[in-house]
Design goal:
DNA Methylase, Chain A, domain 2; alpha/beta; 10 helices; DNA (cytosine-5-)-methyltransferase activity; restriction system; 2 domains; Rossmann fold; 334 residues; disordered C terminus; single chain; 8 strands; methyltransferase; globular; transferase; two-stranded parallel ribbon; six-stranded mixed β-sheet
């Protein structure tokens, strides 16, 4: 069956953004991801190996497409990262995206990032992104959405940026009224190895008390089957699992299994996990909440079908000019 639209999957990770767009009739014509373990998982599920470093790929080497998808790297903008932002080389990867957008002029640009992108550098980072896309001819929309409002038992806020070539309108999806509970994603049978040791459990409890005495809310998060939702799962979950521990009667709490981590992000049980537990936790912690992407994708396609999305020629934008205007003149764009 002929695809209804085409898209490319940049900074693809394990393909969390790809799944809904493909399910809704799209065809992926190009993907890029440099991390080898992620490539292994991607290949197992989509039967293709993503191209490597996007900074080494020229825009003209990429097939034409309708929608650009990119969950560009979180670390430069994340509260859990180094907070270097555009001062970190990886912080300039957005401008590799913009080069591709400038060359191909896709109908839609769809971006996902951490919530902190909205306030990073006093809001200047988001302003640069908005201005870049606007000067490339796009009408830009952005909003922070929470996974727990879209049927997942996880408190996970992320910012979504949707840009249409021309003046097409767009409405973000409304939260669902679906009630969630952690028990919905838990496996009935699991390996005892996921139960944490006495030593680790004692350490978690001691550190929580220390944090409480310091007046902050840090420490482990303990949840039961009846809990409405968990904390945000992060790429650090493989270390000790402290942000999400599951209660067990008469035992120490346990970590999520990799399959439960996948479910917490909305990945179907048919999604294969061919890597180690350590890599799986990193991958799902870094990935996206699939049901949120699905609802966004539906609205993107509605806007594409009901409104005229432009395709236009324009003089290529000098990304360095925008960078200089916002004080980023010394950065390397790759």
């Amino acid at each position: 069956m002929k695809s209804q639209f085409t898209f490319i999957d940049l900074f693809a990770g394990i393909g969390g953004i790809r799944i809904p767009f493909e399910d809704l009739g799209g065809e992926c014509v190009f993907s890029s991801e440099w991390d080898r373990p992620c490539q292994i998982t991607y290949q197992a599920n989509f039967k293709e190996i993503p191209c490597g470093d996007i900074t080494k790929i020229k825009p003209e080497q990429i097939p034409f497409f309708d929608i650009l998808l990119a969950g560009f790297p979180c670390q430069p903008f994340s509260q859990a990262g180094t907070k270097k932002g555009f001062g970190d080389t990886r912080g300039t990867l957005f401008f590799d995206i913009s080069k591709i957008v400038d060359y191909h002029k896709p109908k839609v640009v769809f971006l996902e990032n951490v919530k902190r992108l909205r306030t990073h550098d006093n809001g200047n980072t988001l302003r640069v992104i908005n201005k870049t896309l606007t000067q490339l001819g796009y009408n830009v929309y952005h909003k922070v959405l929470n996974a727990k409002d879209f049927g997942l038992p996880q408190n996970r806020e992320r910012i979504y940026i949707v840009a249409f070539l021309g003046k097409a309108g767009f409405s973000f999806p409304n939260p669902s009224r679906e009630k969630t509970k952690v028990g919905d994603i838990l496996e009935k049978k699991f390996d005892p190895k996921y139960t944490i040791s006495d030593k680790l459990w004692s350490g978690h409890k001691r550190r929580k008390i220390e944090h409480r005495l310091k007046g902050n809310g840090f420490g482990y998060g303990l949840f039961s089957e009846k809990s409405s939702y968990t904390n945000t799962i992060s790429a650090r979950y493989y270390k000790d699992g402290s942000e999400i521990l599951i209660e067990q009667k008469g035992k120490n709490p346990r970590k999520l299994t990799p399959r439960e981590a996948a479910r917490l992000q909305g990945f179907p049980d048919s999604f294969m996990i061919p890597v180690s537990d350590l890599q799986a936790y990193k991958q799902f912690g870094n990935s996206v909440s699939v049901p949120v992407i699905r609802e966004l994708a539906k609205n993107v396609l509605i806007s594409m079908k009901t409104q005229k999305v432009s395709t236009r020629e324009n003089k290529p934008l000098k990304i360095t000019d925008i960078l200089a205007e916002h004080g980023y003149s010394n950065l390397t764009l790759g």
